[in-house]
Write a structure and sequence with these properties.
The complex is a heterodimer.
Chain A (H helix, E strand, L loop, with lengths): L6 H16 L4 H29 L2 E4 L10 E4 L1 H28 L4 H22 L3 H19 L5 H32 L4 H7 L5 H19 L8 H4 L5 H26 L6 H21 L3 H22 L2 H32 L10 H4 L1 H15 L5 H16 L2 H30 L66 H19 L1 H17 L1 H8 L2
Antiparallel strand pairs in A: 1-2
Helix pairs in contact in A: 1-2, 1-4, 2-3, 2-4, 3-4, 3-10, 3-13, 3-18, 4-5, 5-6, 5-10, 6-8, 7-20, 8-10, 10-12, 10-13, 11-12, 11-17, 12-13, 12-16, 12-17, 13-15, 13-16, 13-18, 13-19, 15-17, 15-18, 16-17
Chain B lengths: L4 H18 L4 H21 L21 H32 L8 H25 L5 H26 L6 H7 L4 H5 L18
Helix pairs in contact in B: 1-2, 2-3, 4-5
Classes of the chains: A mainly alpha, B mainly alpha.
Family (chain A): Belongs to the CPA3 antiporters (TC 2.A.63) subunit D family.
Keywords (chain A): Cell membrane, Membrane, Transmembrane, Transmembrane helix
Main location (chain A): membrane
């Protein structure tokens, strides 16, 4: 069983090679490889999760080098769960992007790069979840980041380069900080292995410990977009292609949260910086959601809710009790799924309405009821309406906060309640503007190429677009660029609007919605599992023993 | 563990130089900063070995006296990663130069909006104060006051329209360089759309 542990990293990497070798000629083959490998990774992750749950953490020392020297990969309950959720979500997003590629008839070069880059991203994410030492964690981050640079600037259009430069610089900076933290840790303890650090860090002077902890937390907070370090996110995510934004929003920030969870429990137990974390959590929640209230572009709005809801998970980590960790893990699982779904839906909305600018959308509930349902369910889920998984996560966190009973915990409970109400307000605003009201004048009708970034499409038929049935006389000249920033195809062109949603994209989105609903149906087993993972995180012994033997 | 002071001093200087370069605007300078600071941090990693020993070979060297090979491995990994990132940043700087004629990093959209709003609101308050200060405003003053207010409102609205189109202040340039929409550019900015009803009250 232990031999399976490296496979979620190795398989996508090997597939990348194949994909690059054959991808330019055999498009079908490339698609087949990507889907097959991600399905295999999903199966493996489920197997690892079950095995880790039944027999305790699995660990592998690559090349059989003993811990401080070799690369250690560990799959415990938390990593197993994260791997499973992330591979399920990445598979859905891949299918969605296939649908999008077909819908846009993208047959050119950037898309040939899309599949390999996407697979490398998956490998990087798996690597961080499985990493058993700081250096490997760093490498996992870098694999993920380099792939994300490529994906974010796919097509190389102006807005994407602009957004990409912010993202790349921030990522570079946090990588440097991470490397410095690793150097410090190694100089102080002589190892970078988590299991060994768990024993050795406690022997250091308190100041050194706090310094290392602070450095690592800063690095992970940049990745996770916790408030004072989150300004890069809403500026860089929305311009990427819809599936890319979806997978970034769902996974990359949560990788940061996962690392916080791992290091806070395994390396720095005792929760010395708990109050600091809680303050950051509160700030993220409030500032993020207020930012979302102010936005009128759907993708930017969703980016701000992303920042806001990271606060919930950080709240759980800051509380540092078993219930809180359990609640935070549920919330991570819920949020990966629901945030990805919302961004996928935003892509569909753009395809249907021609833009994600809320002031220009309208009447979608009538024109595309399926899309309305696909948006409504995850939106309510995000806000935390009772039977859905958002409620379960929030409830777990708040109960942990009340049980803790300290002043900060109460403030956070109140803050998170207010945040979820504001989330509901934001989602209601989106619903009212984009779905419920009548279509505003000049909405793009079927099949209009709204704007394209780098080629003069010579369809000069400037037929006035009228919305049938609204009786408005609004005429939209062709050069009114409705969907410019949000040019969401893989190439960076604006999408072609259609009245019929592409079937594959819709099904992929529906699958993620269903995944979100499944958390409600299987809430019992899920919370039991997260509770066991939290217990394992706090106990620390199973992890250390699995790696070091004994 | 003893650490060579010169190694640490060099690392500190490199990190400082790199840090300063990374705070500048052009991407190429940021790239240089990243490379220099990256080298500084690699030295920092190397300094984690402590005092230097013999080369870490498997045979022929007494095991107790070799240098710790692990930081060297970490530094090597970091160097390879820096190389890849450097290549990517260079490509991006070049692409940015191709598109806009410069490789400067642009302002954050949100920041720009907030600054603009603050400017406009400040000007408005000033205007209002001046206007109120006059005991008996003449028709001329009233007209001027109204015109000024209109101008401020138009500025905000133009910015919002620009944002709705998702272009930032220098958006026209991209538009132009990317080509193809010359007539659009020549005609100036596309005409403003009527304000949607949901955005009212922004200008106060």
């Amino acid at each position: 069983m232990n031999a399976l542990v490296p496979l979620p990293v190795l398989l996508p990497l090997c597939a990348t090679g194949l994909s690059l070798a054959f991808g330019t000629r055999l498009k079908q083959f490339q698609r087949f490889i990507s889907v097959a490998v991600l399905t295999a990774v999903l199966g493996l992750s489920v197997a690892l999760m079950i095995a880790a749950d039944m027999n305790g953490p699995l660990s592998v020392h690559l090349g059989d080098f003993a811990p401080p020297l070799g690369i250690t990969l560990v799959a415990d309950r938390l990593s197993g769960l994260m791997l499973t959720v992330s591979s399920a979500v990445t598979l859905c997003v891949l299918v969605y992007s296939l649908g999008q590629g077909m819908a846009d008839r993208d047959e050119e070069t950037p898309v040939a790069v899309f599949h390999p880059a996407y697979l490398i991203l998956v490998a990087g994410v798996s690597c961080t979840f499985l990493a058993g030492d700081l250096v490997n964690l760093y490498v996992g981050f870098e694999i993920m980041l380099v792939a994300s640079f490529v994906l974010l600037t796919l097509g190389g259009t102006g807005p994407r380069i602009r957004a990409g430069s912010t993202y790349v610089i921030i990522s570079l900076f946090s990588s440097m900080l991470f490397l410095t933290a690793i150097a410090m840790t190694y100089a102080a303890t002589g190892t970078a292995n988590f299991a060994q650090l768990a024993g050795r860090l406690a022997e250091l002077p308190l100041g050194v410990q706090t310094l290392i902890q602070g450095m690592l937390l800063t690095v992970f907070a940049i990745k996770a977009a916790v408030f004072p370090l989150a300004a890069w996110l809403p500026d860089s995510y929305p311009t990427a292609p819809a599936p890319v934004t979806a997978v970034f929003a769902g996974l990359l920030t949560k990788v940061g949260v996962y690392c916080m969870l791992r290091t806070e429990t395994l390396l720095f137990p005792g929760n010395r910086l708990g109050d600091l974390l809680m303050a950051a959590a509160l700030a993220s929640m409030v500032v993020g959601i207020l930012g979302a209230v102010a936005q009128t572009d759907l993708k930017r709005l969703l980016s701000f809710t992303l920042i806001s809801h990271i606060g919930y998970m950080v709240f759980g980590i800051g509380l540092a009790t078993r219930e809180a960790y359990g609640g935070a893990i549920v919330y991570v699982v819920h949020h990966i799924t629901v945030q990805t779904t919302l961004f996928l839906v935003a892509g569909l909305i753009e395809r249907r309405g021609g833009t994600t600018e809320l002031t220009r959308l309208g009447g979608i509930a009538k024109a595309a009821p399926v899309l309305a349902v696909l948006f409504f369910v995850p939106a309510m889920n995000l806000a935390g309406i009772p039977p859905l998984s958002g409620f379960i996560g929030k409830l777990g966190l708040m109960r942990a906060g009340v049980a803790d009973g300290s002043v900060w915990a109460w403030i956070l409970v109140i803050g998170s309640t207010a945040t979820s109400l504001l989330t509901l307000y934001v989602m209601a605003k989106v619903w009212n503007l984009a779905f419920w009201r009548a279509a505003p004048p000049g909405q793009a009708a079927d099949g209009t190429v709204l704007e394209s970034d780098d080629d003069s499409d010579d369809d000069t038929d400037e037929g006035p677009d009228r919305m049938p049935g609204t009786g408005d006389e609004g005429v939209r000249p062709r050069h009114e660029p409705a969907g410019r920033a949000v040019a969401a195809t893989l190439h960076g062109h604006a999408v072609t609007t259609t009245t019929r949603l592409p079937r594959l994209m819709t099904w992929a989105t529906a699958a993620t919605v269903a995944l979100g609903l499944a958390y409600t149906v299987f809430a019992g087993p899920l919370t039991a599992y997260t509770d066991r993972s939290a217990a394992e995180l706090i106990a620390r012994v199973p992890y250390v023993e699995a790696v070091l033997g004994r | 563990m003893t650490v060579s002071a010169s190694l640490l001093a060099t690392a500190a200087v490199l990190c400082a130089v790199g840090g300063i370069l990374m705070l500048t605007r052009p991407l190429t300078r940021i790239l240089l900063g990243a490379v220099i600071a990256g080298n500084g941090i690699n030295l920092l990693v190397l300094s984690a070995t402590g005092s230097a020993g013999r080369e870490p070979l498997l045979y022929g060297v007494e095991l107790g006296r070799v240098t710790d090979p692990l930081p060297q491995a970490i530094a090597l990994t970091a160097i390879v990663i820096t190389l890849a990132t450097t290549a990517f940043l260079l490509a991006m700087a070049y692409r940015s130069h191709q598109l806009t004629g410069t490789d400067e990093v642009h302002d954050d959209d949100e920041d720009r909006r907030i600054v603009l709003r603050a400017e406009v609101l400040g000007e408005r308050d000033e205007l209002r104060e001046q206007y109120r200060a006059e005991a008996e405003p003449s028709a001329e003053a009233q007209r001027r006051y109204r015109a000024e207010r209109r101008r401020l409102r138009a500025r905000l609205r133009a910015d919002r329209a620009l944002q709705a189109r998702g272009r930032d202040a220098s958006g026209d340039l991209w538009h132009d360089v990317l080509g193809a929409d010359a007539e659009d550019y020549a005609a100036g900015r596309p005409t403003e759309r009527p304000e949607p009803p949901t955005n009212r009250g922004d200008t106060g």
